[in-house]
Amino acid sequence: MDEDTAREVLLALREEALARLADLGVNRDDVVQASQGANIDDEHDPEGSTIAYERALLEALAVSARARIADTDAALARLAAGDYGICEVCGEPIGAERLAARPVASRCLRHS
């Protein structure tokens, strides 16, 4: 993958993760608003998931989105430094197939 293509792919991944994070924030706000003022005993409600579970799920998804942004930022930094596509362990090139499948990869398959 050439440098321009890698930058485009990484920036698109970053934008997707930022949009996902924003959506998760809206969804969390919706869950919180829906539970305010309600006298719900969600810990003992036999009807589906609890509000606490929904909040925890949204937080886990937000953590994942933040990690994706951090991974993408690190890949963009490697690209700027000229180290993109080089395994951080052995210094050998990361295979094109691996970078196509996982553009934020910092290690070759042997060291992943």
UniProtKB/TrEMBL annotation:
Gene3D superfamilies: DksA, coiled-coil domain (1.20.120.910)
Highest taxon, organism lineage: Bacteria
Positions of the Zinc finger DksA/TraR C4-type domain: 82-109
PROSITE patterns: ZF_DKSA_2
Keywords: Metal-binding, Zinc, Zinc-finger
dksA C4-type zinc finger locations on the chain: 87-111
Membrane spanning stretches: none
Name of the featured protein: TraR/DksA C4-type zinc finger protein
Organism classification: Bacteria, Bacillati, Actinomycetota, Actinomycetes, Micrococcales
